[in-house]
Amino acid sequence: MANDLWTQAMKWSPALRKTYLSNRFYKYSLFYFPEYFIFDTPQFIEDYCEALEQWKNVYFEGFRWCAKTTIAQVYVNKCITYRTRRNIMRYSQTIDNAEENLSYIANSLIWWDDTEVSRLVKDFGQLYYDEFSWKYWEKKMKRTNKFVTENDINVRAMSLGTSPRGKNYTAKDGKHRPDLLVFDDVDTLDSVSSKKKIDKNFNFMLQEVLWGTTGACQMIFLGNTIYEDGIVPRFKEHIKNDSSRVIIKQSIYKKKKIVWDRFVETDKQMNKLNKGIRESNRKYTSLETERRRLGQISFDQNYNLVPYIQWQQIISRDMIKYLKCSDFGFDYIQIGVDPAISEKTGSDRFAICVTWFDWDKRYILESVKLIGKEKNIKRASRVVLGLYKKWWANRVVVETTAYQAVLKTIFQDMGMAVKAISPHRDKVTRVMEYQWMFEDGKVIFNTTGTQDLVDELLVFPWWDFDDQVDGMVYSLYGERNKFFISAL
Prior knowledge:
Layout: H1 2-9, H2 14-21, H3 25-32, H4 43-53, E1 57-62, H5 68-81, E2 87-92, H6 95-107, H7 118-124, H8 130-137, E3 146-148, E4 154-159, E5 169-171, E6 174-176, E7 180-183, H9 195-210, E8 218-222, H10 231-238, E9 245-250, E10 253-254, E11 257-258, E12 263-264, H11 267-273, E13 285-286, H12 287-294, H13 296-300, E14 321-323, E15 332-338, E16 350-358, E17 361-370, H14 377-390, E18 395-399, H15 406-413, E19 418-421, H16 427-432, H17 435-439, E20 443-446, H18 451-458, H19 467-475, H20 477-481
Helix pairs in contact: 5-6
């Protein structure tokens, strides 16, 4: 598609090309940056480009590697070439990240021989001074925190904590207030480590950054979510009723199909398609590889695990690791409870699982299932209390839906610390979120007291009973709960 446009547009004069592409951002991107459009463009990228072209404020929440940052960079480039913005600020949580992004933008404005970017310089001229070019090639300058282009545009890297107030740009034709703000990577592992930090960052963003600009300032907010709380989820909630903003939400799957053909399901498919391809930007990406490489956050960031098919095992025999754990000194113990109210023998079991959290590993210490009259709430509660005292547990995580809600009060009255949860995802999804931990050998079973759970886990979900598996998932709750689970 990009090659067709290139062939057609090459026949035109530079003046005609510039006029034609002035209000066609998507085609501008195809023509001047074809290396980003090797694969067919999905609809959500075209929607993203259209919203930017219409000068809308855009909130974009998408899966990892969905090109949201790349398109934003190209948009800044177009604003510079056509002088539609005069004072541009790129925000990140850290100044290093913002500076790195600015270096990519600066390099797109410099003449590099025999590169695709030279198309843009041939039409618009070199828009950034030579000093950076030479220093970059001599490895004396890897990043830049601000620059002024040859056509009088000010571009600046900003970190949260730096206000745009008073940072007007004095150009030859007058002063310009900030008129384009780009937010990307505003949440980091460090910045969301405490509620105090999140409160400080979010309040600063609202009171200083957003309220320090005018209504004429365009804003691009790229939602990279890490934890349940942070600037990204708070900002999403803040703008949910604002009709003036375009909100783009896109997961890797739509109607059970991958939305972008640059991604394939498995490593086997990827290796077959990439055979003979040398250029990295032309290679296909395996979701299986990315899930394994990125761990749990790959699921939370909407990669989604490889689709589950009938009779496929989620947890296979080779993922099960054993260790005798009864003599260890334990730091943090959590008990997961999947309750059952009926006392009928053939109904769901009352499942209890005890897990030790030890750095990056999780040790399943004991799993108990109650059947028949053992599932009586009072009797079952006493069993939970017995395990709580036996292992010196720190907390009980219990499912509380409908009639089960009373268990939280009962456990608390018995002196146990309780976390009540109400699951919003199906059983298979909840287990798949932890599959990466089993693959990496981070879940280890005690050699005693866990075999029934292992047997159940190896045939999950193709068995009549899966209550012990649910109990195990709840006992691992702290691991999953750290990350923001997208609802897309």
